[in-house]
């Protein structure tokens, strides 16, 4: 299992350091799950040591597809690695729908990040009106095709997909565990068909994201197709993120 704590544009240095210290006190080193903390970029160097102590890797919430140059406001994979990150997120719904990133931009970011040796979480998911119009499958398949078709990844295990229905992010609404199971199963099948980067669909880790909380995590994580969660709001406190991590079913 894999759990990501996505802090978005939240957190002071003190809050992030306390989060890692508290995660450690709550047993983050002892879990079999992989844990990754995505704080704002500016906090990454400060957290490298505490992350190691807590057994929690660090990641950037985004990256740019060039190594250096006149790209005001952007951050390169090399800069992320220098700052202590081993992971990145590509195509988070807030970047797609608030900032306006296209499928093409997401593809470039994913390709560059993976090529640079970082591990990446590709987020896919439908908007509420797409869901209501019965377009969920079409939209998610298109996002996967655009990101993965013909992608050459040296290490396929560096790619993780997160299914995050946009209507469930930060809203308190979640897909039912059966809906998540169904979509994850389709995503696995489609990734096998698209065949990008030698990814083995059976081994691909697919996370669910969208208002995962201590109260609903166990039900979602009990589904065989769900390999972990990308958590926003409930990751801001170590108490709730840790409760989500420890709600993995015994055989998980
Ligand atoms: C996210 O940021 O990816 C997310 C799923 O947020 P939340 O858990 O707050 O819905």
Radius of gyration: 17 Å
- Say which molecules are bound, naming each kind only once: phosphoenolpyruvate
**Biggest sheet architecture:** 8 strands, parallel, barrel
Helical element count? 10
Assign the CATH superfamily. Answer: Aldolase class I
Description:
This protein is of the alpha/beta class and 252 residues long. The protein has one domain: TIM Barrel (Alpha-Beta Barrel). The chain has 10 helices and 8 strands. Strands 1-2-3-4-5-6-7-8 form an 8-stranded parallel beta barrel, surrounded by 5 helices. Helix 3 links the parallel strand 3 and strand 4. Helix 1 packs parallel to helix 2, helix 5 crosses helix 7 and helix 7 runs parallel beside helix 8. The longest helix has 18 residues. The radius of gyration is 17 Å and the shape is globular. The model has no long low-confidence stretch (mean pLDDT 95). The structure holds phosphoenolpyruvate.
Short overview:
The protein is an alpha/beta fold. The chain has one domain: Aldolase class I (TIM Barrel, Alpha-Beta Barrel), CATH 3.20.20.
